[in-house]
Amino acid sequence: MNFSRRSLLGLAVLAGVGFGAVAPAQAFEPVKPVDFVIMAGKGGGADKMARLMQTIVEKHNMASKPLIPINKPGGSGAEALVHVQNAKDQDHTIMVTLNSFYTTPMRQPGLGVDSLKFAPIARMAEDTFLLWVNKDSGLTTFDQWVDHVKKEGDKWVMGGTGKLQEDQLITDFLNANFGLKMKYVPYKGGGTVAKQLAGNHISSSVNNPSEIEGFFKAGTAVPLVAFTNDRLSAFPDAPTMKEKGVDFAYYMQRSVVGAPGMSQEAQDYYTALFKKVYDSKEWQDYRTSKSLYGDFLTGDALRDYWKVNNETHRAMLAKMGAS
Amino acid sequence: MEIIQHLLDGFLIAFEPLNLGLVIVGVTVGLFIGAMPGLGSVNGVAILLPLTFLVPPTSAIIFLAAIYYGAMYGGAISSIMLGIPGASTAVATTFDGRPLALKGLADKALIAAAIASFFGGTVSIILFTGFAPALASVALDFGDQEIFALMLLAFATFVGLGGDDIPKTIFSICIGLVFSAVGMDIISGTPRLVFFDITGFLHGINFLVLAIGVYGIGEMLWTIDSTRGNPSMSKVQISVERTFTHMKDVLKEWKPAWIGSLLGFFVGILPAAGATPGSLMAYGISKMTSKNPEGYGKGEVGGVIAPEAANNSASTGAMLPMLTLGIPGSPTTAILLGGMVIWGMVPGPLMFVEQSDFVWGLTASLYAANFFAVVINILFIPVFLWVLKMPFTILAPVIFVLCLVGGYAPTEDMHDVWLMVIFGFGAYLLRKLDYPLAPAVLAIVLGPIAEPALRQSLIISGGDATVFFTRPIAGPITIIAIVLLFLPLVQLIRKKRKKAREAQS
Predict the structure, then answer these.
(1) Chain A residue with the nearest C-alpha to that of B202
(2) How many folded domains does chain B comprise?
(3) Per DSSP, what are the bridge partners of residue A225?
(4) Are the Cβ atoms of B337 and A43 closer than 8 angstroms?
(5) pTM
(6) In sequence order, what are the residues at sequence separation of 6 or more whose Cβ sits closer than 8 angstroms to the Cβ of residue B98?
(7) How does the average pLDDT of chain A come out, rounded?
(8) Which CATH architecture best describes the domain A31-127+252-319?
(9) Would an 8 Å CB–CB cutoff place A136 in contact with chain B?
(10) Which residue of B has its CA nearest to A162?
(11) Predicted confidence (pLDDT) at residue B450 exceeds the cutoff of 60
């Protein structure tokens, strides 16, 4: 693999030189395979989605040059952010991001990363969060859950992915707004958290639907409340947080960004490419089956969305005394 | 009987011409991917995943599983022939496979690896076929406390691994543990031990970087040093007669084969562990229970059989939590799981009911993959042996290049290549000072599993360490581990007493 990639690169560089010499600025086409950086490890939620996008592109021959997935999971995405920020060939480096896109630069200011400088290409979806318990707990409604967890105090264990990331932000919100004292235990990935819940090793979780689907269908995991604006069609019995009296919704972005300094032409090309992916039947089916939110967003609208989210996350982290 | 009916249905699917063809191609591709240092089943499956859109999902998973399987066989080849672990799962195979090759018994080691892989594969598929749903619930019962207890047991079996010098073994384990702590700490959510603010340390120290550094580059330096640059590789003859004698010898070694198969399968089904820890633990326990523990590390055929049986067995085992719980038991199954999501399947407890064709087609194809892997592997042995006939002056640069490729492939980061070269020199120096290196390799594999499990357990219990003793599964494992840990000490005291008594009389 390495040799063929090398030689491809070599050819591409030669082709690029020739191309650049004759062709004036016009519609951008990649001249070599595109680095498709994934801000998470192999097999996680972000990775699965990125590989689905890549597969859709390949299946329908949407691009003249392939996307080459590269996992950079280090430091809650820090490694990926730095890698893309320092990319030498900005027009051939894109990245799939999640919410650590906001929080990691805030928590590790030493990296010198500014999220807003990345080129907005496409928001492909927003993942949703629900509160889950094991059916053995006997709890079936959110109100019962609040009463019960109040009594349990810090014996109630909430498991989640990572420290000071999405799951803990939601846990913290629940503790603060309902007078709870849940203990938070960080795990490496959402799949492990779901397994811990199914095995009764933790008391509740705030998994994305895609992570816990299997246990929900088997009846082991029970959703109590959704952190979304409206009820999710896959979980009609789970009320929203808003119905429970607190106007709170929280989503995980699934966006594609370009390296800072990417040319406008390249940005237009990738935006058009990912719009095609977004409109494909496979992606739309995936969105429906995994209860994904969030329409297609690009350009300034996407950057504005980042600005809003940046501030929300800054405020949440500040409240937790982390940044 | 229902199971047998299902399995027969599965065989009908597995023996469709397309699927059977994919099994054979997959196993062969896997064999070579596994044999390339640094490229393991993870890379192979990840690279070929997009291709699988061309065929139906059942054929796709059969193809990927065949690659996975073939790679488990192939990993042993470069471990034995070149002393470089072909894949992370084959590191333990180098411990004895390489010394055997140096003694001129490379063919024996390769045959042992192939037969052990077949045995481990067969045992685990039978267990998988018969008890999949029941075993899935065992995997669920394993919480953080149980995982930590199991890791403790693994460390305990390895204290005896580095020879009799226990302080040096413990030092080696500690070095490995420090390296395993580099990178992101998931419990505190902050990076740690990022030396000199080099971003390459953020993803931690990849285990293969250490293993290839130690066993590839370190080994080469050692060979050059100990032979003054003129090593006489003992030539291997190949003959049918020799092959049969070796086969007979290998078949006598039933104990390491069973230890590897059962332990590998069990460790494989536990989420988060996978084939690499499984094969290392199998090696440790096999050494401990052997009649000739001193021979391990110097070319004992049992030291090849145990880890090879274990890694194949674990790779089947790891599919169990993937299918029934939707949780990968190893990095490769994590990619397979991603594939299943792309094909629109929902792995989980209902998988065996709702996607019965898929599950049983896969199961039956594992039997087929195992059969073809052993046949193809044995047929290729003469080709592999030919490598050893090359003069060392040609072989050494080839090994060096393969090491560099192997260090670069997993993360595609030059940082790791430099790190690997440094580890190679460090390992050579430590070896000159008689430090055992296998325990360091073990520690860097198990550290990242043991450490979070320990801390998560203690957070849940509020700092109460008795949970490791009071839980029904964790308790006995912890106690066995502690007994094993102190066993060498007791033996040492006994030896001294005996000596003292002899001196008196």
Answers:
(1) A74
(2) 1
(3) A131
(4) yes
(5) 0.82
(6) B79, B80, B83, B215, B219
(7) 87
(8) 3-Layer(aba) Sandwich (3.40)
(9) no
(10) B186
(11) yes
